[in-house]
Amino acid sequence: MTSSPLTLLALDSATTGCSVTVWRDGEILAHEARDMTRGQAEVLVPMAVDALKTAGLIPGNLSAVAVTRGPGAFTGMRIGLAAARGLALSLNVACIGVTTLEAVAHGVGMHERRAYQAVLAAVDSKRDDIYVQLFDRGLKPLCEPMAADGPAIAALLDGLGAVLAVGDAAARAQDMLRGEGIEVRLSTAAHVPDTRIVAEIAAGRSEMGMNTPPPEPLYLRPPDAKLPKNAGRARP
């Protein structure tokens, strides 16, 4: 008796792109990606529908749904998570979260990584600091995801040799570190999450997916919006 193939739909709208992939047992059946900083709410689900049609599948064929969960843009992150969690719930399949930082780090090929001691994944925060996570050349995390400025990133790299930076804030990280007297090189890999990579990472977690809670957004700082002093209640 043969087991059913693992079929994943991977979604990303957490940073400056919008991407969907239909993946089955290591084969990419459909993939589409667009560069966009806003408007993902209007295009993400239609892109997913079109990808399933291209793959010759229906939602009921899916074994799991994968999604990036941040860090990244607040609205885009919530759009992707809501779509993925809603679809997974309706199909009674696993919803598997992948961080944007691990997705961009895993997009760097081994041929490029082998010349470096570590990979610095950097995602834009729209603030003075950036979101970062450091990985060794085998892509094992060396720290937790964090929001960091130049001195904090420099401290993270202290004692390391050659470091490769990747992500949509990689150039900013390079400038920050240059100000700290540290040089890093920029990767030639994609600087936004690639849902083909997200699907591969999620596939490795699929067996535990149904036994874990649905993914939550990864926030590395409190939201900018705050309740007024009277907690939004009308004044007497």
Walk me through the structure.
The mean pLDDT is 91. The chain folds into 2 domains: 113 residues, ATPase, nucleotide binding domain (Nucleotidyltransferase, domain 5, 2-Layer Sandwich), CATH 3.30.420; 78 residues, Nucleotidyltransferase, domain 5. The protein is globular, with a radius of gyration of 19 Å. Strand 4, helix 2 and strand 5 form a beta-alpha-beta unit. The protein contains 8 helices and 10 strands. A 5-stranded mixed sheet has the order 3-2-1-4-5, with helices on both faces. Helix content is 32%, strand content 24%. The longest helix is centred in the middle third of the chain and has 18 residues. Helix 1 packs across helix 2 and helix 5 packs across helix 6. With 236 residues, the chain is of the alpha/beta class.
Quick overview of this protein structure:
The protein has 236 residues and is an alpha/beta fold. The chain has eight helices and ten strands. 32% of the residues lie in helices and 24% in strands.
Q: How would the blueprint of this fold be written?
A:
Layout lengths: L6 E6 L4 E8 L2 E9 L4 H16 L8 E5 L5 H18 L2 E5 L1 H7 L3 H4 L4 E7 L5 E7 L9 E3 L1 H7 L6 E4 L3 H10 L5 E2 L8 H9 L2 H4 L27
Parallel strand pairs: 1-4, 4-5, 6-9, 9-10
Antiparallel strand pairs: 1-2, 2-3, 6-7, 7-8
Helix pairs in contact: 1-2, 5-6
